Input
Amino acid sequence: MGIKVCKFGGTSMADGNIILRAAQIVQSDKDRRFVVVSAPGKRFNGDIKVTDLLYKCADALDAGDSSLFEETFDKISTRFLNIERELEKDVGMQAGLNQVKAEMLGGAGRDYCASRGEYFAAKIMAAVLNVPFVDATEFVRFKEDGSLDENTFALGAKTLAKYDRAVVPGFYGLGADGKVRTFSRGGGDISGAIVARSVKASLYENWTDVSGFYACDPRIVSNPKWISYLSYQELRELSYMGANVLHSESIFPVRSAGIPIRICNTFCPDDAGTYIVKTCTPDSKDTVVTGIAGKKGFTAITLEKSMMNAEVGFVEKVLSVIGKHGISFEHLPSGIDTMSLVIDNEYLKNGVLKVLVEEMREAVNPDRIYAHENIALIATVGHGMAKNVGTSARLFKALSEAGINVNLIDQGSSELNIIVGVENDDYVACIKAIYDEFFR
Ligand code: ASP
Output
């Protein structure tokens, strides 16, 4: 086979023993030549991830709280020094920590602080595997707006071609201003995909603490169906809507190169895992729905106006209101005389919702405008839906039989998903009803 890139998440890097386990996985297959790591995650319930501690350090510095900074930095130091001791490797941890602390105190910035968990984790993994450490700042580049610079892949190919094997820290790279910059949380998955594309890997293995994807959240339905294959697009829809196994943007680097992703479990390495592939999944021949995922905490702002359909620029004016506030929307279901904007509640705190409603009223003079808060969105996803007549009829019948009121509906034009908005309180019942209809 060709090159395999392995990315180990935080739970696979949590302490010395687990890191050894991850290293053994790498060493058990000579094709596993490039390794990307996250910062050490939780070791037990109630434990704190190193990245969270690092953000706490940055917050303490911002607030000028030096005792909180010292206390938090000590916790991070203890964790890394313990790991170094457990593994009996000398990576110069104490000197490295001293230097990082000085940089933080010297104003290196929030992203720099957050990135150091991955940095030290990669130093340790490189020592355990006895392969070179290659810093992500050598090739992962961000544009000024924070998005990934496409030059990253060519630069990654050139940089990594010098190595037969290497360990790379995930989660960060270099910003357009020459400073360390991070992805959004969980972004180590994107780093792994970047390395996979750069070295033209035949497989991107993402090692985590679950053996892949279930058809829905096992905390809601016990023993849900296992998903052995997913398409990139199905993965994107499901992870964006809350299936929390892989970062929803990790498919972009590998999709165009057609590199499959395999989700694997560090704690059950023999499990088959879930494969994420380019084309329609083998399962989908006889499966209507591949998976169900959802999230709570949205608001729908609905505008009603007679003859809205004939008013040129109506939607544009409404969207310019949220654009001005730097807010993006999730969905925009519309009818001839109505439209709704579904927005994540995160954007609407501290009176922002009221301001938006007022500004929209002024911008388009609607007959009626109102906000429906506490909405949960549930996506039913699967390529199989396009080929099977009556899927939406089955879905809505199941919801009506379960007594669930649907507040809004949005079906993507790709016929890959049907999204329904229900009251937050109906979230669990809604997922159960859809699961029972399509999987039992
Ligand atoms: N350590 C980072 C986080 O906790 C990135 C990652 O794990 O992928 O979000």
Summary: Residues 4-209 form a domain with the Carbamate kinase fold (CATH 3.40.1160.10). Residues 305 and 311 are 10 Å apart (CA to CA).
